[in-house]
Amino acid sequence: MEDRTTSNAAGAALAEHVRMAQVLLPCRDLAATLAFFTDRLGFKVNLIFPADSPHTAVVSGHGLTLRLETGAPAAPMTLRLLCDLAALPAGTQHALTSPDGTRIELVEARLPIEVPEGRQEFVLSRMGDDWGIGRAGMQYRDLITSRLGGRFIASHIRIPVGGPVPDYVHFHRIRFQMIYCKAGWARLVYEDQGEPFLFHAGDCVLQPPEIRHRVLEASDGLEVVEIGCPALHETFADHAMTLPTPHLLPERDFGGQRFMRHVAAKAQWLPWRAKGFEMRDTGITAATDGLAGARVVRARDRAEAKFGAHGGEFLFFFVLAGDVALDVQGHGQPRLRTNVSCVIPAGASYALEASAGSELLEVALPAELPNR
Fold first, then answer.
1. Per residue in 31-59, pLDDT tens?
2. Quick check: helix, strand or coil at residue 293?
3. Which domains, ranges and CATH numbers included, belong to the chain?
């Protein structure tokens, strides 16, 4: 532990003095390579030396800094330039080669989000010791190991020891993403949504596509359930933005959705779609214009409910508290207790039997599941 602390301190001291990052590209003919990058690709010269017989040049452009050296060891190198391909002149080659053999690939700067077709299957995830370390030191438990063919991801995330979180301003290129706080609290801040706020157990947020946000602090024992589509999505740091932003724009549109914060302490319990159960709606249905819905469902007393097969793309339950007996057509009768989750596939009828006070998080896409 002491060695790790010393290493972290040394790394922090180093980071304080870093002013620029460069990619080293070996070259045989500096003049020809320099002309290629400046004349053809629009890079600018930052440095060149020695003046009488140059062997090194530093150029920058398009968010990249390159150090060209004639004495550097040769190695294969590919440089990707992110472009608006549709705006390039007709006939522009998308693969170029510099005089020294560096391959230049022109690729689309902003590819559309790819959402796999996915597949329907029954998934049951029980609490175990299968926790891994993810981004910003958080512990992750995968609730859908198959990812339903790459279409959905669900994670149980925890921070055992609280305090400041080593997070940074970032955003996700995603179709849908929500976070439910199961235990503890966190302090969060979102782009154009005002000052940082406390995210307590029972609360929920919808993170619309590409909204900048950051986790600032967490309590001991923080636990959240996060669900996203598609399963594989990109997370980008935004080092240029400082949160909170100066504007409060609660109705701002982010990719057809708006930010939504559900506060459990202020929520009303309403009838659910089965007798004997009640629910509090998180507001995700309205915020996504029906793309998705999320509710906390509670059995007032011991309650039973039977449902026909649904025709939606996703139906997920996570047991927040209590004991629930599940009966899924063709998949047996598993017992669900706290921290157990399941995915009900389209085409399968199912039934629930819940003890008094049992609570479940229900997430569905679309918000109102069509019948089959």
1. 899 999 999 999 998 878 776 678 888 89
2. strand
3. 21-108 (3.10.180.10), 128-262 (2.60.120.10), 270-365 (2.60.120.10)
